Amino acid sequence: MQRYGKIEAEKRKESQRKFLLSFRLKIKHLLKILESMTDKNINAPQGNGNTYINIGHAENVITGNIEKFNNVHNEGEVKKAKSATDETAPKGDRLQRQMEIMQYVSNLKDFVAKEWQSRYDDLWKAILEDTEVACVIYEPGKQQNTTFNRKLVANIIYIMCKLDVIEETNVTKLTLALEGNKDSSVRGQLAINPSDEVIKRRIENIVAKR
């Protein structure tokens, strides 16, 4: 009985941890929007009912110790937070963007390793449906002439190259296949990992399980 209770507690803890990581990514995305609209600080005179926002402080809180956050906030509060931070893109838009990403990465099929040819599309679908990835890949941010996060897509392609899903590693050839232009800004992203270590690990795990 004690062992069962321990297993259930571990499951709840893991579920809550995954949500908190997702919540952190969404808030980081909102902070980026705030930064593009304001200076580092937005000050309002005290007593007028307005809010003082310190972007740097908020970033420190969000990127802080998740376990500490987990201990301070109870499950009820987490559920409220989840309902308040639902997917930023409507489902119809997300489906359209997913199709555009799938079309985009299909440009690399000639470079996919033989043993991955039949699983390449399914691999991308699994990645795009991952909770952590979905939080950011469908939002282009400040990127121009795109409806999705091409930088992250390129970072994921880099991981696939390292894990031998894609045999071609020459970034010029990959950029030409994707963009039709070897000087595209995507080129630099095809040689680096995602900036978020959580997303990097999750993509590596998805590839390893397929």
Structure class: mainly alpha
As laid out across the biggest beta sheet, the strand order is 1-2
Q: Helical region count?
A: 11
Work out the radius of gyration. Answer: 20 Å
Q: Could you describe the largest sheet, including whether it forms a barrel?
A: 2 strands, antiparallel
Q: H/E series, N to C? A: HEEHHHHHHHHHH
**What is the 3D shape?**
globular
Unreliably modeled segments: 38-87
Strand content: under 5%
Report the helical percentage: 55-70%
Number of strands: 2
Task: Report the span from N to C terminus.
Answer: 35 Å
Average pLDDT score: 76
In short:
It is built from 11 helices and 2 strands; from the N terminus they run αββαααααααααα. The chain is an all-alpha fold. The longest helix has 36 residues.
Outline the structure in words.
The protein has 210 residues and is mainly α. It has helices spanning 2-37, 55-62, 66-72, 75-84, 91-105, 120-128, 131-137, 150-162, 171-179, 186-189, 197-209; strands spanning 41-42, 53-54. The protein has a two-stranded antiparallel ribbon. α1 (2-37) packs parallel to α7. The longest helix has 36 residues, at 2-37. The chain is globular, with a radius of gyration of 20 Å. 21% of the residues are buried. The model is unreliable at 38-87 (pLDDT under 50).
